[in-house]
Amino acid sequence: MSTDHKELLLRQAARLAIRANDFALNGDYIDAVKYYTQAIDHCGEHAIFSFYLNRALCLLKMDFSYLALFDANQAVRLSPQNVKCYYIRSRVLRKLKRHELAQNDLKIAMKICPNCEIIREESQRINEQSERELCFFNEKLKSYNLNDKTYYKIKVNFHLIKARDLPTNIWNYNGIRVENIRYDVPIKLINEYFSLFGNIEFIKRAYCYYDDDNYHNQSIFNRSSLSPTSSSSSPSLFIYYYNPVTPMFTIAYFQGKTFKELCQINDDKQYKSLRLYFAPTDHQIELKYFRPNYPPINTQECYFWRTTYCNLKERCPKFHLQPCKNVDAQMWMFK
Ligand SMILES: [Zn+2]
User: Fold this and answer.
1) C3H1-type zinc fingers: which residues (predicted)?
2) How far, in Å, from the CA of 300 to the mean position of ligand 1?
3) Which of 65, 110, 198, 231 is 20 to 30 A from 71, comparing alpha carbons?
4) Pick from 101, 37, 25, 114: which is nearest to 74 by CA?
5) What CATH number did the domain enclosing 173 receive?
């Protein structure tokens, strides 16, 4: 592209962006987004960070936080020394409750602009919000009516997990399913590992299979004919707890971790890391063999992201929270 042509495109894009700014100032965010998008499309690879940053602000106003994050990331990429990019991205991250990441951005912003009062205030706001949420979390924990032992275990081991790894348990599953765990791990060892955040009610290994219409979850303890050494039909391990909070913490702590005593070995002689999912217990019939209804509380989380796969990816208007990826996938969903 010739320099003249490039300048012409940028001038046209700037005009579109000025129109967008006017709409944004008047609170008409839909039209503002439309014109920022035209400005961005107009200059293609020469897009200016401020177009993305301003569109991010409009998207944030309209509560499309994940789209806003996408734009804020673009802005940071295009102008990595600009304090405004980090500041705006931290606001998007705060809205997404990713407080640690938001504080990271503010730290970078403070390095670029050490005496900025606005950045310091924002950092303070995030700290206060985190504290409020911790209080809220403690309240919520109380409302589950956990017995003293569970409450104590969670309190004592709370420091082992990071809040950002904690999946939400929107259907209040009381159990977990663990994959990539070895077939021959003794029950005693499973008990030692997996009762870190609450006592275990029941452990079972199970194969799941289908016949024509029905789903069966057949405990292998009742079936002597199955070969325990066949790795292709390695059973899943189900662990049931007495409450829906223990599974959340257990998943947050064990997800993706590798333990020599527990994990299967793959063909390259490497230990596979553990994969954990929420699972209904035998008492939770209403969750057991079919897609559960959307939870009564509107969590804004994407059902497909939580279970199998979301085709919309970053264009999805619902939340895709990292610790919740596939966490509600049940074996019957992969028929
Ligand atoms: Zn989605």
Assistant:
1) 296-323
2) 10
3) 110
4) 37
5) 3.30.70.330
Give the long-range contacts of residues 46-51, CB within 8 A, separation 24 or more.
46/6, 46/9, 46/10, 47/13, 47/74, 47/78, 48/10, 48/13, 48/17, 48/78, 49/74, 49/75, 49/76, 49/78, 49/79, 49/82, 49/85, 50/17, 50/75, 51/13, 51/17, 51/20
The residue out of 131, 146, 164 marking a domain boundary is: 131
Same domain, 72 and 117: yes
Tens of pLDDT, residues 106-122? 999 999 999 999 999 99
Q: Tell me whether residue 148 is in a domain.
A: no
The letter for the amino acid at 65 is S
Same domain, 326 and 177: yes
Q: Kindly state whether residues 256 and 212 are assigned to the same domain.
A: yes
Q: How far is the CA of 164 from the centre of ligand 1 (A)?
A: 19
- Residue 298 CA to ligand 1 center (angstroms) comes to 15
Count CB atoms within 10 A of the CB of residue 253.
Answer: 19
pLDDT digits (tens, 9 = 90+) for 208-254: 544 434 444 444 443 333 444 333 456 789 999 999 999 999 999 99
Q: Is 80 exceeded by the pLDDT of residue 96? A: yes
Structure confidence by residue, pLDDT tens digits, 151-191? 888 878 887 888 778 898 988 899 999 999 998 899 999 99
Span from the CA of 308 to the centroid of ligand 1 (angstroms): 10
Indicate the average pLDDT of the chain: 85
Alpha-carbon gap, residue 61 to 74, rounded angstroms: 18
Report percent pLDDT > 70 for the chain.
Answer: 86
Residue 43: CATH number of its domain: 1.25.40.10
Instruction: Determine the Cα–Cα distance for residues 269 and 271; give it in Å rounded to an integer.
Output: 7
